[in-house]
Amino acid sequence: MESGSSVGRSGHQLVVRGREEPDQRLPIADVGQVVIHGYAQITTQALQLCSERGIGVHWLGFGGVPVGSLAPSAPSAQRHLRQFRALSDPAQTLPLARRLVVAKLESQLRYALRSTRGDGERDHAIDAMCERIRDALRRAAHAEAAEELLGHEGTGAAAYFEVLAKLFSDDLGDEFKFDGRNRQPPRDRINAILGYAYGMLYREALQAIIAVGLHPGVGFYHRPRSSAHPLALDVMELFRVPIVDMAVIPAINRKTFDPSDDFQVFPGRVLLSALGRKKVVEVIERRKVDTWRHSVVGYSLSYARMIELEVRLLEKEWMGEGGLFAKFRLR
Questions:
Q1: Rounded to an integer, what distance in angstroms lies between the CA atom of residue 248 and that of residue 243?
Q2: Domain residue limits at 272
Q3: Domain for residue 144, yes or no?
């Protein structure tokens, strides 16, 4: 994560070299992924070792925006052809997109209701925001086109982030003021944290898709508009609330992040410092190992494993065992 640091190879180990700290040696058998942040580097020899062992290498910009990935796999051409055929058919993609948006909006609504449940009645303004999410949810469930879904998703998300603004402690001060979601570049500290965490979630979804053997470039809801893979963007929508929002917001309220040391503030944009990025990584990595009982399989899985499970359930949609994708919900 440190600018000027590098990842090299020594035999069957990866060696992380910083500018000041001692070298860190990691046996390749203990490495799940390599993530290069900002101006850190990785050598050709290290890339070759990762490729041989099927270990993904991902490059992220300073704001957590995905730059590119090397994710080795040996997928079946027939598997990809089945995916391409299925996800080229609007009769297949629209119901999947509708189910995805409904699942996302339900997660947002349930978290908003749970987080604003106090000893007395809920604030009328929050009730109105939650009702807007409910309305978007009802409309999304009956949408007849992807463009319609996008509109309902956007309406629900706007109301959801208005609720989120009410969840931050008054003790945080003006440095952590939140007026809604913004990105590319983030204009406040909370959006800098959220953006970086969502970038990490995208990478997890991408890794799971490739591990299962699907092609991340062909999705059913998002359309190619950047270097980000549409199917990875689709899958990560299911996990924005449980993996990122439910971990990051309490961490901010616990004053995990220092308004000075953990951020770099520029005119019109705010970025995480190296220390701030490390803290976000720690928060999300801890959340990934938390477990949740998945309603489809009937037993508890870590969130990291759950992402891969959802990708496998997605593939069943065009393999004759549909109806299981995007079914898990927050209680």
A1: 8
A2: 77-316
A3: yes
Instruction: Find how far residue 233's CA is from the centre of its chain.
Output: 8
Q: How far apart are CA 96 and CA 258, in angstroms?
A: 41
Cα–Cα distance, 7 to 19 (Å, whole number): 12
* DSSP state letters, 182-193: --SS--SHHHHH
pLDDT digits (tens, 9 = 90+) for 144-202: 999 999 999 999 999 999 999 999 988 888 899 988 888 888 999 999 999 999 999 99
Question: Which pTM does this prediction carry?
Answer: 0.83
Shared-domain flag, residues 168 and 46: no
25 - beta bridge partners?
15
Same domain, 11 and 138: no
The beta-strand segments (E) located in the chain are 6-10, 13-17, 24-27, 33-37, 41-42, 56-60, 66-70, 263-266, 269-272, 291-293, 300-302
Total Cβ atoms within 10 A of residue 170: 5
